[in-house]
Amino acid sequence: MNEIIIGILSAIGGGSFAALVNFIANRKLVKKQTYKIDIETENIAIQSLRDTLEALRGEYNELISEHEKLKKELAALKREQSRLRKAIEKIQDCENRNTCPVSIELQNIKDINSKTL
């Protein structure tokens, strides 16, 4: 009878040991798989960020280019405005200012603007 009990306990003990080894092995495998999935997820996120960053860089470069064009246009408009202001100031010294078509046109514009305000 002792032999039967010892056999049963050995079988149970051996089975428990095998189950414990199997549990540890499976736990390591699950950890490896989880780690691999985490790495893949991080790589996907990194690639997505790279794609987004590249798109933003393209848009940024387009905006910089447009900004430079607008700066040049603004500078040209300022130069043109300065020339016009100087020309208008010279009208006062012109001996033909009373019959000058530019002076008359500017006076008409001034009159129209004063009526609308």
Brief descriptors of the model:
rod-shaped, 117 residues
Structure explained in plain terms:
The chain contains 2 helices and no strands. The protein has 117 residues and is an all-alpha fold. The relative contact order is 0.03. The model has no long low-confidence stretch (mean pLDDT 82). 91% of the residues lie in helices and 0% in strands. It has helices at residues 2-91, 101-116. The longest helix is centred in the middle third of the chain and has 90 residues, at 2-91. It is rod-shaped. The protein has one domain (2-116). It starts with a helix and ends with a helix.
Number of domains: 1
Largest sheet: none
**Runs with pLDDT <50, length 5+?**
none
Order of helices and strands: HH
The general outline is: rod-shaped
In DSSP terms, counting alpha (H) and pi (I) runs of 4 or more, how many helices? 2
For the terminal residues, how far apart are their CA atoms?
119 Å
Gyration radius, rounded: 44 Å
Strand content: under 5%
Structure classification: mainly alpha
Mean pLDDT over the full residue set: 82
Helicity range of the residues? Answer: over 70%
- The count of DSSP E runs of length 2 or more, i.e. the number of strands, is 0
